[in-house]
């Protein structure tokens, strides 16, 4: 219909709603498809066979890498808005936090303090730090928490009766695959430690999200090294 109306090629980039993307992948006039979803789902894998460009804008989030020597207070303070702001639905919302091992305990202590001080309420209330998402999201968070607890993952919630905010802590978060594919859009933050620069890079490059990474360090040379290795 767009072609019949004379809309220039490449103008339409976003198709909202729940649709079957197969028709767009095989259509000769479509060059780019924007996806607000998990890019690693099987139905998107065959798009490369048709030479289509996929722009991933899903609310699956970004990673955060924290090195020793940075301002831990600022890093922890930023997590509140970066992870839970706008109900955690923005594409650049933080989902994974990787913290250098020698400052892991200090970071967790400060992060818990910051998260516990957040004021939670409805989006139209005054002085609210983070707003409560809808019941569908809350139910998913509760299921993630139960799965994490069953697998021995440390779960931090300032108020156990309120599913938001939720932080999963510990090195066994990834091996146990607590947050499965269907729950990528859920505003739950995972925090794990790393030892070396290469380990931090590998953790960031192997997340499902992959949309972006924020690097926290006082060393410009270290940041430049990270930038050169991130995919």
From TrEMBL:
Name the domain of life this protein comes from.
Eukaryota
Q: Which GO terms describe its molecular function?
A: oxidoreductase activity, acting on the aldehyde or oxo group of donors, NAD or NADP as acceptor
| Signal sequence bounds | none
| Location of the Aldehyde dehydrogenase domain | 4-230
What residue intervals traverse the membrane? none
> What is the protein's name according to its record?
Aldehyde dehydrogenase domain-containing protein
């Amino acid at each position: 219909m767009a072609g019949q109306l004379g809309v220039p090629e490449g103008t339409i980039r976003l198709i909202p709603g729940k649709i079957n993307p197969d028709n767009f992948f095989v259509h000769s006039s479509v060059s780019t498809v924007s996806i607000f979803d998990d890019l690693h789902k099987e139905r998107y894998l065959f798009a490369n066979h048709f030479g289509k460009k996929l722009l991933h804008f899903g609310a699956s989030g970004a990673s955060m890498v924290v090195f020793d020597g940075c301002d831990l207070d600022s890093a922890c303070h930023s997590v509140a808005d970066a992870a839970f702001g706008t109900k955690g639905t923005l594409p650049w919302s933080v989902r994974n936090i990787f913290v250098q091992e020698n400052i892991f305990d200090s970071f967790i202590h400060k992060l818990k303090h910051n998260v516990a001080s957040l004021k939670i309420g409805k989006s139209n209330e005054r002085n609210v730090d983070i707003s409560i998402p809808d019941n569908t999201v809350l139910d998913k968070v509760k299921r993630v928490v139960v799965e994490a607890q069953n697998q021995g993952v440390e779960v931090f919630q300032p108020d156990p009766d309120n599913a938001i905010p939720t932080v999963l802590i510990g090195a066994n978060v990834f091996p146990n695959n607590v947050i499965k594919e269907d729950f990528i859009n859920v505003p739950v933050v995972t925090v794990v430690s790393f030892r070396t620069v290469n380990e931090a890079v590998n953790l960031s490059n192997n997340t499902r999200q992959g949309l972006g990474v924020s690097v926290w360090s006082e060393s410009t040379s270290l940041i430049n090294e990270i930038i050169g290795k991130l995919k």
